[in-house]
């Protein structure tokens, strides 16, 4: 896969991640800063993603992770999606995008 196709696939992945929301927060998980790693193996059409939650004991954890997995698996051109839930480094409000900070009233 050339650089342009790689960038387009990453854009599709990020666009899809922006459709996933924590039910308790009106901001998508990408802008919340919950996505730590997007690793795309173009030769095998595989995606490895590391993500976290705003709190380790989030009651919606299973729902959010499954929503991420299902939506990413729906992207044409991805044959395998691996979603890893990690808690290092610990999530903080500093990881919010500027748009998320505005939406949540932190600016």
Beta strand %: 15-25%
Per CATH, which architecture?
A: 2-Layer Sandwich
Mean pLDDT: 93
Rounded to an integer in angstroms, the radius of gyration calculated over CA atoms is 14 Å
Instruction: Give me the secondary-structure category.
Output: alpha+beta
Q: Outline the biggest β-sheet.
A: 3 strands, mixed
Question: In the CATH scheme, what's the topology name?
Answer: GMP Synthetase, Chain A, domain 3
CATH class: Alpha Beta
**Low-confidence spans:** none
Strands of the widest sheet, in order across it, are 1-2-3
What's the helix count? Answer: 3
Shape: globular
Q: How many discrete domains?
A: 1
Q: Would you count the extended β strands for me? A: 3
N- to C-terminal distance = 40 Å
Assembly state here? single chain
The string of secondary-structure elements, in order, is HEEHEH
């Amino acid at each position: 896969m050339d650089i342009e196709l790689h960038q387009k696939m990453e854009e599709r992945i990020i666009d899809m991640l922006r459709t996933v929301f924590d039910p308790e927060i009106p901001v998508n998980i990408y802008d919340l800063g919950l996505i730590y790693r997007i690793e795309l193996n173009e030769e095998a059409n595989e995606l490895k993603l590391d993500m976290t939650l705003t709190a380790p004991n989030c009651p919606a954890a299973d729902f959010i992770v499954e929503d991420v997995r299902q939506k990413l698996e729906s992207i044409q051109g991805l044959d395998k999606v691996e979603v890893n839930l990690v808690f290092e480094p610990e999530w903080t409000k500093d990881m919010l995008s500027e748009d998320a900070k505005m939406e949540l009233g932190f600016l």
